[in-house]
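Worked example 2:
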Amino acid sequence: MPKVKSQISFVVLYVKDLDESRTFYEKTLGFPVKQTDEGYVEFDTRGAPLALMSLDAAAALTGATPTASTAVPRFSLSLGEVANVDEVYEELQRAGVMFVKPPQTQPWGQRTTHFSDPDGNLWEVFTWTKKDNGA
């Protein structure tokens, strides 16, 4: 079995409407654009880069036609730890972000909330309420 680094180095989301998704990530969430190309936009997230790619560009790159199914999320991405989940929740709601459910404190010691981007990709916002989280 090949050895793989246990870190995610890049995330690319295949999206139906690149302009709509770019506006969401750039204007609503405040991610600065790092690079653009035909059918592609990359954001500087101060972590693993996040890129959006149109379905057509993704099909041309991979040789497969990705589908944008929103019935059941296949993964979630995390914005990272924030100081106050409830404040971020309220701020993003005012900006028009659609949340799956309001913030909840989880049994393992995180306060979390999740929202969807325009293509139904699931995002998490969290903070630790207990530092003895077993990590």
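The chain has two domains: 7-62, 74-135. Residues 18-28 form the longest helix (11 residues).
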